[in-house]
Structures are given as C-alpha cells and as structure tokens.
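User: For a reading group we're discussing how well predicted structures match intuition. Take DUF5916 domain-containing protein. Before you show the prediction, I'll give you the sequence so everyone sees exactly what went in.
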Amino acid sequence: QQITEEGEGGWRGSNTANINVNWDGVWDVKTTQTSNGWVAEIAIPMVTLRFPKVDQQSWGANFMRNIRRKNEQVFWAPITKEYQITRVSLAGTMAGMRSVNQGMDLRVTPYVLASGTQQRSGERLVTTGAGDIGLDVKYGVTSGLNLDLTLNTDFAQVEVDEQQVNLTRFPLFFPEKRDFFLENSGMFDVGSGSSGWGRSATLFFTRRIGLSESGQPIPIIGGARLTGKTGRNNIAALNITTQENFGRAGENFFVGRYSRDIFSRSKIGGIVINKETLGGSDYNRTVAADAAL
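Assistant: Thanks. Here is the predicted 3D structure of DUF5916 domain-containing protein, as structure tokens, for the group to look at:
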C-alpha cells in the first residue's frame, strides 16, 4: 500500500481516498516454522524506498501483527484504538543506519507482441500477422522525485476488473491497476478528506486515459509522469497522448499539481488539468486551488 495524508478520507471502491492498495513495490518474503513458533523475513530493495541522501538515516516505521486466536492486534510502536497503522505520525523511529546506498533506480521494461491468424477462403489458406513493440521506463531522478516514461504502452498484463452491475445513473469508479499510473497517485488528489468521512475532490481520474467507457484499451502513443517531493514542495505532473480509436479522435492529457507543506500538518496548493482533441478544437480545462490548515 502507498499512503498519503495518513490514510484519512472517504472510501473509494476498495480504497480510501488516500490509501492506494494497488501500488505494488518490489519486495520478497520468506517464512519458516520453528519449535518456538514461526519467523518471517522481509527483504525490500533500497530502490523501492524513497529516502534522503544523507550519511545517517532516521526512518519512521511501524509493524502490526494480527493474533486471530486472541482477537488481538499488536503494534511495534503503540497506537491508540481510534487510529490504524496508517497513522504514520505515530510510528516509531529506526535510527543508526549509516552509508545507505539506494543504488541506481532505473527499471526498463520493453515488450514485443506478435500474433497471427489463418483463414480458409475456398481452396486457399490465407495467413495474416501483426506485431508491436513498446517500452516503459521508471527512473529515480532524485531520492524524492520519480520519472515514468511510456512509449506505445501495453497494458495486456494488467488484471481485469471485477464484474459489477450498475443500476444507477452514475459511472463506476474501478480501481487503477496500471503500473504507470500507480506510484504517488495520491499526489494528484485535490482538497482534504481528513474531516470525518469527507473525501478529496475527484477532479482527475486516470481511468479516463487509455480506456474506453466499456473498459477496452485505447492505444497510448506515449507519455511522461513526474511525481514526488523535494523539501516542502510536492510535485505531480503528467502528459500523455492517445491514438484515434473506437471512432473517437486522439487526445492529449496534461495534469500539473503543486502543493507546499506549511506549519506542521498544513499545506496549500493548486492543480491545472487540460484535455484536448488532437487536430480539433474540443478541449476541457480545470483550474483549482486548495488548502488544508
């Protein structure tokens, strides 16, 4: 999971507005049983984490264990009953780590796709073929900023949506599961959902990019996405272009979101959203400002 605003906010499908359960970082785990119980060991590559490049590290961390037979939850750093483990401000501190090297945070994922069909036409056997190539790149620009690039994107490996019957006049909000859009996705949210069951305003929803209303893929020509934090500045920008398909013209999407942390738990910021039809005059633009004090 990836958490923003300590996980506070109203529910959005299986997520809250500020908990992204579909982010899937690289890590590994092994368990074993012993005469005294069991042991679990979790290995998380440093490139999966985001931390400042300083000699001596101090990280916030917490761990939770559910003991079913006792109906009990145990935390490494105590948390009062009204909060969950997502309350990162109540986490413990891991100190004493020195000379931690994150390594080069670069992941390149190319793909090659080929297909062929044979059809019999009378006495003739007609063979046709097709192929495609594409590339995804993820690069850590700094310890806090992450750059994603995509070219001729292939989302064939993404798991399908759960089937739902919609009897209302409102569209369903299926969760985003495409890797390009997942990391730091909460940084594009506007407003504060921290008051009761309030939720952030959904001015930008990534499922509107590269997917038709029925969930069919729309080819993406290419795009870039920069997200992260530098000092007190929170930055999120995205630019992506789709091809003409399903009788609709190609489109360009741009989103720019900036906010700055002020005081201890406050921030102020704004967002610009632009959607334009390629080669046409249709557009949709939104500008908003927000503050949480």
